[in-house]
User: What shape does this take?
Amino acid sequence: MALSGLVNKVKTILTNVCRLVLAITFIFSGYVKAIDPLGTQYKIQDYLEALSCQGMVPDWITLASSVGLSAIEFSLGVFILLAIRRRLVSKITLTFMVAMTIVTLWLVIANPISDCGCFGDAIHLSNMETLVKNIVLLGCAIIIALWPLRMWRFISKTNQWIVFNYTILFIIASSLYCLYKLPFFDFRPYHIGANIPKGMEIPENAEQPKFETTFLLKKNGETKEFTLDNYPDSTWEFVDSKTTQLTEGYVPPIHDFSIQTLEGEDLTEEILADSSYTFLLISPHLENASDLNFGNIDRIYEYAQTYDYPFYCLTASTKENIQHWQDLTGAEYPFCRTDETTLKTIIRSNPGLILLKKGIIIRKWSHHDLPQEAELQKPLHLSKIGTIEENSIPKRMMIIFLWFVLPLLLLTVADRLWAWSRWLRFKQKKKELTQEKTEDSISTLNND
Assistant: This one.
């Protein structure tokens, strides 16, 4: 009996440790993807491209998949943490982890993309690190699927529907809010306050990339491969050579930022060194950009002209698509070329607007949330929008706490108090019944 009790205790502790590991990972992973729905969509498109399916799936489906996948992962984490629908959730979690482990196994073998995107831009893992992580999580999922009822319940079965609905509503609303505006937390190197020139610097003692060159040479009908260390004499005839990168070396956070005019003139240094303010309208592809607010964009361009602030539109579009955008919106601002991936990384909006000063990102706006006319009545150095926007992480975390964590915490406390009071009433009633039976027994004996 003692051994059986010990085994059961170990099983219960193991199940709840696995439950905690899964919950924390799923909540964090789901949330960082949910608040960056466009970033997650780009990653889904990378997977489709690796499968040679690019262009076959409409953008609205990949975007809906981005929001849906993030919501499922985040919700599963909350449900596991609070032990909501234990049997069903544990089975869904196991199925989810089996699928994810198969995907990451394919990533390790085929290496179609370098980063799986499982933690968005918050944490980057190699494909092998991702596989190890998923194997651990798969083991945890197997444990909770074997003994789901050993997970300690924090919410009574009758109140679980509240957590279920509120969690799904919260995470979908978070995605839609960040899609309309910008991600609530910005983990990318182009966040507000980032110094672009500094982010491009390579430290003097930084690790340099290492390469190895091999040569294919032929002599007397025999072909061999040599390196620089064992290169033979001149009697060997050169056939071919190839250079392989052994180690990547240090890669600065910002390594692919450049701005060129349509004629090919490089404006990167000029723009980043400008001591004045510079507006950059960002659109990876103008053919996919929203034209709902082009009037506001034109008004900001006119404001920039009034105060002699440079204004450029950075895009990776072709000249034909640029011309179409000009015909559609009447745009008169100059256009420049920048790498598509860089533009998608800078801001999660198409189009989006950023404000630079001396290469430092002062402000970022979604096309839904551009500066209003009342904010464009005076020079930027006298205006609120000309200063770096407060982006306090503790403040934003407090907002999440007040909107999501606190309501669930209060519900949990209220539910446990209600369950405890019900248990006390049950114990009191049981005590009264026992007392009544005892009194009846004594009365019967006296009558006999």
